């Protein structure tokens, strides 16, 4: 019988790490994994009840102490990370994977700064979201409360543990973090820093739980909701992880499957703006979900706009896959197939198509879009307003780069992910979207007629 | 092969009714039911896309014309209802069921007035929920949008079709209504009035769909989400319906399983207020989810408060099931068992217990509560604030009747239900909670560094 103990204050850290390793060795039986995960869920639920009432000061102390710990342990974290990277390389993982896994001193400092920034944000719990006085004198307030227990399933990036743990803590939610087994040593050390913060603030350690089970069955258990002890799941990783979570989760999910981001260059676009915005949207970083994947050019502006836009992309080293009009303006452009309109490249490749005005752009986006982020470039405010209104995406942009699709850029002080669903959260999921609410009614003896 | 046609404008109503009856006769094969339901879902999704962009005027016209139709067809509706009631009686349904099913002229007028009231409310779509300007000059707005397609599964009350259809329409959502087979004739006629409204406003008739399938398999199909064409389900009915929907639905659910409502009378309660509020909370209507089910009395105030409260209840004809202290103050009080603390009576019965102050009350509610509505009666604002903060219920009340737990009383112009979950909606679900949002970004050429 395997018992999953919640780490507690005053315990020797090295011993704790050994326990985790021990558990990993023992956790090969599915029945045990189920019991461990259920027990983690129950402990997290208890922690969530305490955390919901925790004062802002305590939560901020925990974040600041965790930041200090991360700075102090930077070398240890980098050493643990080097061990993860070496093992991942030995297992033949791709260069892109190794890049996401690898930490340097700047990354570690960034984690600490992230914690400090989140500590400095206003407490999202207890905000009065609405207040109305009824004719009978009742005062009704809608007040923000935490959601409960949030499960975060992530792959290679160790920094997700810090971002997710900190955002959940600040918003009064307990977090159950399940990182990829390849980042296990890095994430375990980072988690210890978060625990040190909780300990210093006298907050329950189960407020931020790291799943100590490498077996993938642990993910399956989280998808079932841990016996009602998990309120929402946030998957952070590649398409296959998100698709699995969306298909199998029995609890709500905040996620986006893909970011098939469009830029529509209208007949009334300023060409200079279009060139600048398109280049930044496509090429600033090609691997982020807000990177542009398809350029739509208004037929009525194609004579002046299409060639310069396509040449700029090609000259900058971006592969262009276009319709016949696009291929006609530059011999370097390759032909696009139907599959290209549905492809999120996450690479220096773009699909380009000439469309019949705003209606054509709207129809193309309605057919191929992923409800993530889409942009219109135009000096015509009527066309812009219609685009912003009619495109059914979480983020719709007029005359700015699509790479602003990011909680930090929105001023949210970080994000736990970007959601394309319509329930509860949509777009960058920051502290506000990690809260629910309740109604407080203040009376003076009123009864209902 | 059965084809489910969406009724269309200009079609003769009698013919439409015959078609529905015809479908009922044919719809005995599960494969057909699946095909019919999928087809309804697809039509509703298309309608939702149009409805999301419909101007407020068109939606309000539809509501007002539907109200007029209901007034004009009042006699027909009452006749159809009489047929439903007669059939239900012949099938041996309970008096309580028949009472909920039965309509009179006042009910029908109330339906029409409800439609007019919802038409008069501000349009919830397009509201700017938040607006922030970033240091780089970007202006970011969070704007309300519809949710999509809302499924409503209800039992005996025909008026739910009007409330739900109207709230969904006003909030730009398509509705798929599935009423109990016992109310089929009444609801079909009411639905025709709603369709007349849509037709007059040139809105798609699939915006408000009545499931033309009596077979319970139709509910099962809705719970699967109709091939991704249903975004949320609202069950309106008894505990067994809600429990089934909550257990089986593969889409989000707005619901409450029960309303185990507590009133805590603190040591610092004003006895007069306590008597008035308790009586109204328990006895105004005993069958509503906001009716009080358990009275908790502070031990420190029991000497002065317990006896008058218990005697008032007993004198008013309410059965009292109490702990030993309660039984001691009046011989008419019966002993409470452990089961009583978990019982939602929905009847003139109350459980009564003396607790050790606010901590005792909070502990009792945390153990037995249903996260619906709970109330403290006290003149001590510190105690009240702590109760409102620490009780984890959708609605927490200080010094007012628990029967105010109602969207109409909140000023929401009606509600589609009351939710006890924490995702998206909580408490009375009105127009605002039937919306999602998106982000509109207004730029002037900004790119991300």
From TrEMBL, chains A, B:
Q: Which Gene3D superfamilies match?
A: Aldehyde Dehydrogenase, Chain A, domain 1, Aldehyde Dehydrogenase, Chain A, domain 2
| Compartment(s) where it occurs, according to its Swiss-Prot or TrEMBL record | Cytoplasm
Q: Which InterPro entries match?
A: Ald_DH/histidinol_DH, Ald_DH_C, Ald_DH_N, Aldehyde_DH_dom, G-glutamylP_reductase_CS, Glu-5-SA_DH, GPR_dom
Catalysed reaction equations from the record: L-glutamate 5-semialdehyde + phosphate + NADP(+) = L-glutamyl 5-phosphate + NADPH + H(+)
Q: Which GO terms describe its cellular component?
A: cytoplasm
Tell me which Pfam families the record gives: Aldedh (PF00171)
Pathway terms, separated by semicolons: Amino-acid biosynthesis; L-proline biosynthesis; L-glutamate 5-semialdehyde from L-glutamate: step 2/2
Kindly state which keywords UniProt assigns to this record, in alphabetical order. Amino-acid biosynthesis, Cytoplasm, NADP, Oxidoreductase, Proline biosynthesis
Q: Which GO MF term does the entry hold, naming one?
A: NADP binding
**Under which EC number(s) is this enzyme classified?**
1.2.1.41
User: Entry's PROSITE patterns?
Assistant: PROA (PS01223)
Q: Name one GO biological process term.
A: L-proline biosynthetic process
Q: Which family, according to the similarity comment? A: Belongs to the gamma-glutamyl phosphate reductase family.
* Protein known as: Gamma-glutamyl phosphate reductase
Recorded source organism is Methylovirgula ligni
């Amino acid at each position: 019988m395997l018992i999953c103990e919640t780490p507690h204050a005053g315990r020797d850290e090295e011993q704790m790490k050994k326990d985790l390793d021990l558990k990993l060795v023992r956790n090969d039986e599915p029945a045990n994994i189920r019991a461990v995960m259920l027990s983690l869920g129950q402990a997290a639920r208890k922690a969530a009840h305490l955390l919901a009432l925790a004062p802002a000061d305590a939560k901020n102390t925990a974040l600041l102490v965790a930041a200090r710990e991360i700075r102090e342990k930077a070398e240890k974290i980098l050493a643990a990370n080097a061990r993860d990277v070496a093992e991942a390389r030995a297992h033949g993982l791709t260069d892109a994977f190794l890049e996401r896994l690898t930490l340097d001193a700047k990354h570690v400092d960034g984690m600490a700064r992230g914690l400090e920034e989140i500590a400095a944000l206003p407490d999202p719990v207890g905000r009065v979201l609405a207040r109305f006085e009824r004719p009978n004198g009742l005062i009704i307030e809608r007040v923000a409360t935490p959601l409960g227990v949030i499960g975060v399933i992530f792959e290679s990036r160790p920094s997700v543990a810090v971002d997710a743990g900190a955002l959940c803590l600040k918003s009064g939610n307990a977090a159950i973090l399940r990182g990829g087994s390849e980042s296990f040593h890095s994430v375990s050390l980072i988690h210890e820093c978060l625990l040190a913060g909780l300990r210093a603030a006298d907050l329950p350690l189960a407020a931020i739980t790291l799943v100590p089970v490498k077996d993938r069955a642990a993910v399956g258990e989280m998808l079932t909701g841990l016996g009602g002890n998990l309120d929402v799941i946030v998957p952070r990783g590649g398409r296959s992880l998100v698709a699995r979570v969306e298909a199998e989760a029995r609890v709500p999910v905040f996620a986006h499957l893909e970011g098939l981001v469009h830029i529509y260059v209208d007949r009334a676009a300023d060409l200079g703006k279009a060139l600048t915005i398109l280049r930044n949207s496509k090429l600033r970083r090609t691997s982020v979900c807000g990177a542009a994947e398809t350029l739509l050019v208004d037929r009525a502006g194609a004579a002046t706009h299409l060639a310069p836009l396509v040449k700029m992309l090609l000259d900058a080293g971006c592969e262009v896959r276009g319709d016949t009009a696009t291929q006609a303006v530059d011999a370097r452009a390759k032909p696009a197939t139907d599959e290209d309109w549905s492809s999120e490249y996450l690479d220096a490749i773009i699909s380009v198509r000439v469309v019949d005005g705003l209606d054509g752009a709207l129809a193309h986006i309605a057919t191929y879009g992923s409800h993530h982020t889409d942009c219109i470039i135009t000096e015509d405010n009527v066309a812009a307003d219609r685009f912003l209104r009619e495109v059914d995406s979480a983020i719709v942009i007029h005359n700015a780069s699509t790479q602003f699709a990011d909680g930090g850029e929105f001023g949210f002080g970080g994000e736990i992910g970007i959601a394309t669903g319509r329930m509860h959260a949509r777009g960058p999921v920051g502290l506000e979207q990690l809260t629910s609410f309740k109604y407080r009614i203040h009376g003076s003896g009123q009864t209902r007629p």
